[in-house]
Write a structure and sequence with these properties.
By secondary structure, the chain is mostly helical. The protein has two helices and no strands.
Length: 81
């Protein structure tokens, strides 16, 4: 996999000024976040089944926290640019 295709294999002298090429670090972080999220959901489901509580309540809380985090990040992006 060529990580510097956007810069024709010369990332020091050539840059993507338009910003249209996705940053490989951001793409990798996204994949890792999805994997971590799945692991957390599986762990919550396992704990909920062990203690006898409905897993849907845990998932609802996680969704609410994720929504608040996304809203916060959106506001930061709007106000910083």
């Amino acid at each position: 996999m060529n990580l510097y295709v956007y810069a024709n294999d010369d990332p020091v002298n050539l840059v993507d000024l338009s910003g249209r090429t996705p940053n490989p670090a951001v793409v990798t972080a996204g994949f890792l976040a999805v994997i971590a999220g799945v692991c957390v959901l599986l762990a919550i489901e396992s704990v909920a089944s062990i203690i006898g509580v409905s897993a849907s309540s845990f998932f609802g809380i996680c969704a609410a926290v994720a929504g608040l985090g996304a809203a916060y990040e959106g506001l930061v992006a709007l106000t910083s640019g």
